[in-house]
Amino acid sequence: MSTHGPVVIRPISEVAEFQKNLIPVDIPGNYTLKHIFNDVAGEDCIRDGVVAFRDFLILFCDLLITDGHLYAKATKKPASIADYPFLFNVTNLLVDIGYYGKLSKNGDSLLIDKLPTCTATFDKNGKKKSARISQTGMVDCLRFLTLCGFEFSGIDFDEKPSINLTLQPFEVLYPDSPVLLTGLKALSIADMELRASIRYWNDNNLLRCDYRLLKAEESDMRDVLVDFLHPLSDDIRNFSLQLHQRYTDEGLTCINTRLGLVSFAYVCTSKIRNNLSERDIYSKRIWEFSYSIKDGYCIFIRPKRTDKYADIIKTFHTSLQNKIAQGYGCDRKRGEPCKHGCQGICIPLDDTILSISDDIQTWLDNEAAK
Q1: Residues 71, 87: contact at Cβ < 8 Å?
Q2: How far apart are CA 69 and CA 252, in angstroms?
Q3: Can you give the pLDDT at residue 4?
Q4: Which element (helix H / strand E) includes 291?
Q5: Which pLDDT score, from 0 to 100, does residue 132 have?
Q6: Averaged in consecutive runs of 10 residues, what is the pLDDT profile of the chain (370 residues)?
Q7: Is the pTM of this model over 0.85?
Q8: What are phi and psi of 268, to 5 degrees?
Q9: How far apart are CA 46 and CA 163, in angstroms?
Q10: Based on the number of CB atoms within 10 Å of its own CB, is 177 exposed (0-12), middle (13-18) or buried (19 or more)?
């Protein structure tokens, strides 16, 4: 029996709700673009296109919430709680459309003459390798995209036998907001050429509308955190931002990592070697804001100095004392299935945190003390 335990997949509606929260609500209208996008279109057009694509993604997630079960089927042996091939297929297809499609002069259509992820290839020995997206999977994605406002000229989805879209060029349109195609073009270039890591199911530059990849200037970490916290109440957002400001002012480094999760981790980097990878730096975190489909929004704390302030812990709220007493660590070393206990002590970012906010700050003060 696996020490990780069985994977219980979540409904596609829950996965879509999770993904929707990762879409930025406010996208600035005046950021400067990297030079790589100079040949796509004017900066204003690209920025407008990115906003239009963001609006499409909100519709996309809403339709997944209501009708996704008709299109997105879980694998028989899921590797994660959100293992829906449809999400990878539709992302790869959109990237292919945006990256390889030829934008018309007036920007109202993309001419498609190849879709590499939907096309079989041959290795150097002449052995055929199947396409990453099957013909059926491709058609399912295109059908769903038509529900979201896309049009694919010359394609009749009622035709039989199955449509073979890889043999002849076709046009992609988005009549309600044609500038979306320019945004898709720019975001697809960013995904193909600027993305720093592989795609995880919850780290998907395109489905997150990660416009920051397009920006010439570095994003302020506080602004990124504001986007991350947008679904939460004003009181919880303010508390979270106060913690961020307090500990970055104290010298902790905040890293926005996407190593299979969505996290803002706080690390004392003064004694860390320059050549450490992001993963190695993340392993030295003291605490983090985290968002996952399993735990929702929460704070994880990894205390290592509790013996130095045991008397202070006795003044904390009883619920917090109990959590600290339980500690954290590898579940498998305790002979239990992996529940990611090594991530730290989990405190949900909901209304219950406000009553213990002072205790949490005192706790973090003592853990971050030099």
Answers
A1: no
A2: 43
A3: 53
A4: strand 287-292
A5: 87
A6: 65 95 92 95 97 98 95 86 90 95 95 88 79 88 95 76 63 97 97 74 77 92 93 96 96 78 84 73 90 92 92 95 85 62 87 95 91
A7: yes
A8: -85, 105
A9: 32
A10: middle
Q: Cα separations (Å) of 278 from 195, 256, 265, 272, 299?
A: 15, 10, 11, 11, 20
Q: Residue type for 360, please?
A: I
**Residues 224, 255: Cα–Cα separation, whole Å:** 11
CA 273 to chain centre: 28
Tell me, what's the pLDDT at 7? 79
**Which of 369, 349, 118 shows the shortest CA–CA distance to 240?**
349
Helices then strands, counting H and E runs in the chain, come out as 11, 11
Please give the Cα distance from 204 to 200 (Å, whole number).
Answer: 6
Q: What pLDDT score was predicted for residue 330?
A: 67
- CB within 8 Å of 253: residues ≥ 6 apart: 266, 267, 268, 269, 281
Q: Is 250 helix (H, G, I), strand (E, B) or coil?
A: coil
Burial of 218 (0-12, 13-18, 19+ CB in 10 A): exposed
Nearest 10 degrees: Cα torsion 346, 349, 354, 359:
30
Residues 6+ apart with CB under 8 A from 33: 43, 46, 47, 186, 214, 215, 216
Q: Which long-range contacts (CB under 8 A, 24 or more apart) does 309-316 make?
A: 309/366, 312/362, 312/366, 313/363, 315/359, 316/356, 316/359, 316/362, 316/363
Token readout for 315 is 């003044």
Cα-based torsion angle of the residue sequence 133, 152, 65, 237 in order, rounded to the nearest 10 degrees: 100
Main-chain dihedrals φ then ψ at residue 109, nearest 5 degrees = -155, 160
Task: In whole angstroms, give the CA distance from residue 299 to residue 353.
Answer: 10
